[in-house]
Amino acid sequence: MTHRPQVATPATPALAPTIAVELFGVPRLVAGTRTVDAAGRTLADLAADLLRRRPTLAGRVLDPHTGWPLDGYSFVVDEQFTRDQTHPLRPESSVLLVASAAGG
Hints:
Layout: E1 18-23, H1 26-31, E2 35-39, H2 43-53, E3 73-77, E4 80-82, E5 95-99
Parallel strand pairs: 1-5
Antiparallel strand pairs: 1-2, 3-4, 3-5
């Protein structure tokens, strides 16, 4: 019997960069921590993994089905506010999860 290597898809967290997502305000209070390591090649992948790792965020900060931030919350990626689910991430990306009003 030959061993066939497992083929990973782009959404496979093992191949995606792991990023320390910083939480501010309500997200921090609900999660009970300042940072959560999550993996993703895109912001949507990262959000889904964040939900898996911190299910306490479901319904309060993140959509319980997709992990995407509910209205009133946004990501800041490399100092830019964004809700673009296709936004690509790199291992060195800086990602924050904040209330949208935090941007002024």
